[in-house]
Specification:
411 residues, Phosphorylase Kinase, domain 1, six-stranded mixed beta sheet, three-stranded antiparallel beta sheet, 14% strand, globular
Length: 411
């Protein structure tokens, strides 16, 4: 979940577990201080929009549960599943805390011996993270009720004394960030077809969030939050910063500013006004990273190129210049017409005015049309400029860039 750029918000989240859980139970009554009717009103599905109905018909597995249906684990069970949080079980680490590999029975979700049953990812809260509890609550309340093929599945949680943990399905291929930016023998460069497949999957997940009557704004869309299963199907993870969208005809919600440098929409950074289409901007940044193989923010690049959007966006609609910034690792794998159309969508998503950005449903439709383009790709000679960028990128540390952590504001 990263380090947050935020100030304290004293308002309680009323969709949170009211008390620590009980071992082995399922959290069908996890919501506190609210009735089932209130829960439905906040996540009711729109029935009047033909586009939304079309989206839902295309993705019949996407649904919003009335209540979370999560298993409540004890801390002892979490210790058993991870072999007492052994260091060799660590999958990764972020601002929220450490993510461990664990093993549970596939049917009962009871802890099992390592190598037997089903592998899961267990995220353990860092008690020094001041925003960790609020983010943990948001994760349970949103991801615990959302079911969609392109959202990571939350299986359960643990809340025992000061111990807060979340249990997820295990995503075998890790994050999109690792595949785009890490240079190691164990990570094969993503082909054009896989990049497009990942983009479409992530877009479908985001479109689903935006398609409920009470729209859900994800607020932290970035490459590290897009996880990949064994078949490179993309799933959005980490709902710690998710917000319910505007109501009563309002165009935006006003909130403390939280996000990630390089991905947050300009209107949100400037005013704290969060629009549904603020997510679309973040998607545009990730799409630009997919096209170029370059990070949204990288202080190791030449000064004028450190902020990817600022530098590369003006080049997207120029055929000759676009060829100089496309990732050389996917050369000859794509039809340039497909790359050009993807660049055009990227440019629209990055429009300064949120009203000028397309909806995510429109983005999904356009990307699916591009996926159908089957022209024979042509060999192209890219300029030495791209080679320089690629060389610079290869020097990047395997560890996540510190510039991609969330950031704090005193406002």
């Amino acid at each position: 979940m990263g380090n947050c750029w935020t100030s304290h918000d004293p308002r309680p989240n009323k969709y949170i577990p009211s008390t620590p859980g009980t071992s082995g139970t399922h959290s069908k009554n996890i919501l506190s201080n609210t009735s089932s009717s209130v829960g439905r009103s906040h996540f009711s599905e729109a029935s009047s929009s033909s586009k939304i109905e079309e989206l839902q018909s295309q993705q019949p597995n996407g649904r919003i549960l009335e209540f979370p249906n999560l298993r409540v684990f004890t801390f002892a069970e979490m210790k058993a599943a991870t072999r007492n949080f052994k260091s060799d079980a660590v999958l990764g680490e972020g601002g929220f805390g450490i993510v461990f590999k664990g093993w549970v029975d596939e049917k009962t979700l009871q802890p099992s011996k390592a190598g037997t049953g089903m592998m899961v990812a267990i995220k353990k809260l860092n008690p020094e993270n001041g925003q960790g509890f609020q983010e943990w609550q948001s994760e349970v309340n949103f991801l615990g009720r959302l079911s969609h093929p392109h959202l990571v599945k939350l299986l359960g949680y643990c809340w025992e004394d000061k111990e807060l943990l979340l249990v997820y399905e295990f995503m075998q291929k890790g994050s999109l960030e690792n595949h785009l930016f890490r240079r190691s023998a164990g990570i094969e460069p993503l082909s054009w077809d896989r990049r497009l497949k990942i983009a479409i999957g992530a877009a479908r997940g985001l479109a689903f969030l935006h398609s409920s009557e009470k729209k859900i704004i994800y607020r932290d869309f970035k490459a590290s939050n897009i996880l990949l299963d064994g078949s490179f199907n993309a799933k959005i993870s980490d709902f710690g910063l998710a917000k319910l969208g505007p109501v009563g005809g309002e165009s935006h919600v006003s909130t403390r500013i939280m996000g990630t440098y390089g991905y947050a929409a300009p209107e949100y950074i400037a005013t704290g006004h969060l629009y549904v289409n603020s997510d679309v901007y973040g998607f545009g940044v990730v799409l630009l990273e997919i096209l170029t193989g370059l990070r949204a923010l990288d202080l190791k690049r030449p000064k004028e190129q450190q902020q990817l959007v600022e530098w590369a966006k003006p080049l997207l609609l120029n055929k000759r210049k676009l060829k100089t910034i496309l990732d050389v690792r996917m050369e000859s794998q794509y039809a340039f017409k497909a790359a050009m159309q993807t660049a055009q969508i990227t440019e629209k998503c990055l429009a300064p005015d949120p009203k000028s950005r397309p909806s995510m449903i429109e983005v999904v439709e356009q990307l699916e049309q591009i996926q159908a383009i089957k022209e024979q790709p042509k060999q192209s000679k890219l300029t030495s400029v791209q080679a320089t960028f690629t060389f610079g990128a290869s020097k990047q540390s395997i560890r996540r860039s510190s510039y991609h952590s969330r950031f704090h504001s005193s406002h």
